[in-house]
Amino acid sequence: MTANEKIQAIVNSRNIPNGYHKAILISLSIDQTNQLNQYELMKNAGVGSRNTLIRIIKELEQLGWLNVIRERDEENRFTENIYEVLIPA
Description:
CATH architecture: Orthogonal Bundle
Number of strands: 2
CATH superfamily: Winged helix-like DNA-binding domain superfamily/Winged helix DNA-binding domain
Mean pLDDT: 90
Strand order of the largest sheet: 1-2
Number of helices: 4
Strand content: 15-25%
CATH class: Mainly Alpha
Structural class: alpha+beta
């Protein structure tokens, strides 16, 4: 599925809770690296706090719209997240 098709599915969906959720999904769909950091996601989606962003990401994962791969370093510390936008059936 192309980025434009994903964006169209996100915009037309009625089971995404609110505009911030959609803005995050659209931002991730546009970014081809799937590696935006949390600050960039907050800025692109207009989310005001990191706690709100984390809550929205968890909600999108639970709804089946987002897969997050959380990478760790050799000391088991989180290093980066890789995001995959999914379109639930």
